[in-house]
Amino acid sequence: MAAPAQNLRINGDRLWDSLMEMAKIGPGVAGGNNRQTLTDEDAEGRALFQKWCEDAGCSMGLDQMGNMFARREGADAEALPVYVGSHLDTQPTGGKYDGVLGVLGGLEIIRTLNDLGIKTKHPIVATNWTNEEGTRYAPAMLSSGVFAGMHTQDWAYDREDAEGKKFGDELNRIGWRGDEEVGARKMHAFFELHIEQGPILEAEGKDIGVVTHGQGLSWTQVTVTGKDAHTGSTPMPMRKNAGLAMARILEKVDEIAWSHAPHAVGAAGHIDVYPNSRNVIPGKAVFTVDFRSPELDVITDMENRLRVAAEDIVNEMGLQIEFEKVGGFDPVKFDEGCVAAVRDAAERLGYSHTDIISGAGHDACWINRVAPTAMVMCPCVDGLSHNEAEEISKDWAAAGADVLLHAVVETAEIVE
């Protein structure tokens, strides 16, 4: 297939304006966004995306998990589409670019092709995957996981948020449950543009990250049960302090991750302590340990060592413990042909680039199981993400979208 001309570029100003317009929906308290999945704000963001896609001449598909598919027709009605996209949902204190850049970058490809009157053999489909973040409904990448056959739809519908509201009920409530069977679509390829969410590209002065692999992830929810008691009148030897046990376990989590340096990581970001009162010794602690590595045997080792170490700690303290695997996926190796298309695009456009392993989970990690897949990354300031201070430059966004454009268009094949 012929490579697109070197002068083929997206409209960087239009992409940036779209990012800023979407960021007005579900504003955070500190300049970022709080547009959690299946909230009214999520519904509003979806409606704006649909309007933009329809204005660009696309037809909108919607499946039973709320995944959105904006299709630009190709010259060959029988050719499988090239999909491109990410997610519009955010963390409670999220940034304006995580996920959103990939969705609106896909839309910008379609707008650019329309501007230039370019036709492709394969249709191009800009995609918004539901509940990538997993912050309201665990696990992360829930809907792309159903699409790829990793979860059943019924199981996903029964997931509950902190208020006991079920995913399926909330999807219906906001009006974004479609009729299309999840996973019925077949893909020629899938590409995802994303901010790095790490410091490597900025530190090395690279414009583009060519993502060759994705780290595997393991989320284990740990529940430690002790006994609520008065902090002032309970003697030290008679305490059953679940909070203290949690602290000791989390020290072990850090130690375990360091033992697999430099690529393994581990921490607990979600922590609940009960009854969470100033003068009550915690009787229960619930926390989720997040281990990641590009090597499956390392993840398995970290999981096993966590259980052994945690059980030793609670047994010594006279407490109880439960473990529940609430999310995870194996390390990912992206399609060599799609990765080459991304690397070649960066070379052709003159952007500095480096191969990179994604430290975060993405919808592309699941879609890679059912279609040839690759990812493009652009830098973010100080590597900061999942934070309202998350920031990128207009030039970084444009460079990433340019590379995405070339990789997608080359794969979709220009019709002369």
UniProtKB/TrEMBL annotation:
Residues 215-311 form the Peptidase M20 dimerisation domain. The keyword Signal does not apply. InterPro entries: Amidase_Cbmase, Bact_exopeptidase_dim_dom, Peptidase_M20, Peptidase_M20_dimer. Keywords: Hydrolase, Metal-binding, Zinc. Its cofactor is Zn(2+). Zn(2+) 2 binds at residues 98, 133, 386. NCBIfam families: hydantase, PRK09290.1-3, PRK12891.1. Belongs to the peptidase M20 family. This is N-carbamoyl-L-amino-acid hydrolase. It comes from Ruegeria conchae.
